[in-house]
């Protein structure tokens, strides 16, 4: 009998929304340890809301959220972060008048041990050497790609078991997108667990273990990334080709 392994993150029957009707309807998915699970779909159909709900930023109306088998849906955002779920939001939401270094330290605010923080900082600077070069630079003066790297670095500074990354390629030039996904590829090689949101499945198929297609707040397809790329009718219906 195969050994049952508790996923790093799971959502079960999740429905959520803002002031009006539900945005998400009965979402269920799991993120196994050491894998990259990607949620793709058209913009405005609930991908970012899913990550915000897991983080405790958007109100859960029904369902469960589990980190390592422990229910966390009633926790506040800082408690979710302390439970090991790091969220890199769309657009990164940096502190614009803080330096790169100060923004990175903000990611480790739940970590009281200075030695641990320094080790994480060394790892981030090794993975993203551009940030070490820019460590004293004000965040608002960075390029779009550099800001995205700071957002990823800040997520790594949290030291969580799971990183949720929301559309890391949004608004970036093709060359910068390639650099960002090279970094995510390095994280994959290190065995990091990632829940990734992206609009373009072809861009992340080579990185993903499992892909879910989200439309109108519902998962309409799940499976291997290459299978989705071969389903022309799905791509045409939900993603415009």
TrEMBL record:
Residue intervals of the ABC transporter domain: 9-241
InterPro entries: AAA+_ATPase, ABC_transporter-like_ATP-bd, ABC_transporter-like_CS, BCAA_Transport_ATP-bd_LivF, P-loop_NTPase
Domain of life (superkingdom): Bacteria
Pfam families for this protein: ABC_tran (PF00005)
Entry keyword set: Amino-acid transport, ATP-binding, Nucleotide-binding, Transport
MF terms (GO), sorted A to Z: ATP binding
UniProt keyword Secreted present: no
PROSITE patterns: ABC_TRANSPORTER_1 (PS00211), ABC_TRANSPORTER_2 (PS50893)
Family: Belongs to the ABC transporter superfamily.
Protein name in the entry: ABC transporter ATP-binding protein
Protein's organism: Pseudodonghicola flavimaris
